[in-house]
Design brief:
alpha+beta; Arc Repressor Mutant, subunit A; Chorismate lyase; 2 domains; 6-stranded antiparallel β-sheet; 8 helices; 8 strands; 31% helix; GntR family transcriptional regulator
Length: 249
């Protein structure tokens, strides 16, 4: 029988927590990272464990230590995925950091394209809610992602702010839960790289042709019904996925 994996070492759990804060922008470039002493107190670990966590963050290129000053966040080419954004929404009531701005090129009801209606198991062309956003890093002026959330018309009618071109708070899954009582319980990712469409190139300011990373997120309720389908498009050169795992040889 295969053996169950042990929980990640404490220093790597601290690394994961701080990495999430850096990637989602809560610790922006130039921000001071908590000291060894503060990390040790906050996480209830020994100072060598906190020191090892900071060293590992430095090794991965997330921070740099400055003698006599502290440890500071370095500029990243990483974009937060839905998991980091949903965690932030649950903790702080918003999916976006203070360094991010959001614009809405389109919000409304459209005939559902095949890949969207397939996600909801609806006939192609069924009217669905399309909620499109462009997320930008205000500190650098860089585009982070083009994100489109899709919902059934029924969910849009029950949660009307989904059809308003402004942030809803709590993230869209949190808002749907507040408005309808329908709660997301599980999400599933699917990703690929492909050439950008003309709409995507225009939104992200990319030349023709350009490759992009595409992430699809299916959000399901307790009955395993898809309540939201999200499509995130990331420009070239921006890392959008990372994972830490054990290797046993």
């Amino acid at each position: 029988m295969p053996e169950l994996e042990e929980v990640l070492p404490k220093y790597l759990q601290i690394v994961g927590y701080l990495t999430d804060q850096i990637v989602r922008g809560d610790l922006p470039p130039g921000a001071a990272v908590p000291s060894e002493r503060d990390l040790a107190v906050n996480f209830g670990v020994a100072r060598p464990t906190a020191q090892k966590a900071l060293q590992e963050l430095g090794r991965r290129g997330f921070v740099e230590s400055r003698r006599g000053s502290g440890t500071y966040v370095l500029a990243q080419q990483a974009a937060p995925l839905a998991r980091e954004r949903l965690d932030r929404a649950a903790q702080l009531g918003t999916m976006y950091s203070d360094n991010e701005s959001v614009t809405f090129p389109f919000v409304g009801i459209v005939e559902g394209p095949a890949h969207v209606t397939d996600a909801f198991r609806l006939p192609e062309g069924t009217p669905v809610v399309k909620r499109q956003r462009i997320i930008r890093n205000d500190a650098t002026g860089e585009l982070i992602e083009l994100s489109t959330s899709w919902f059934t018309r029924e969910v849009g009618e029950a949660a009307p702010k989904l059809l308003v071109a402004e942030k809803v708070g709590y993230g869209t899954p949190g808002y749907i839960a507040h408005a309808t009582g329908i709660r997301a319980t599980i999400g599933r990712y699917q990703s690929c790289a492909r050439l950008a469409t003309s709409e995507e190139r225009e939104a992200l300011g990319l030349p023709n042709p350009s490759a992009v990373s595409v992430f699809w997120l299916y959000t399901r309720d307790a009955a395993d019904k898809v309540i939201a389908f999200d499509e995130a498009i990331y420009p070239p050169g921006r890392w959008s996925y990372q994972q830490e795992f054990r290797i046993t040889l």
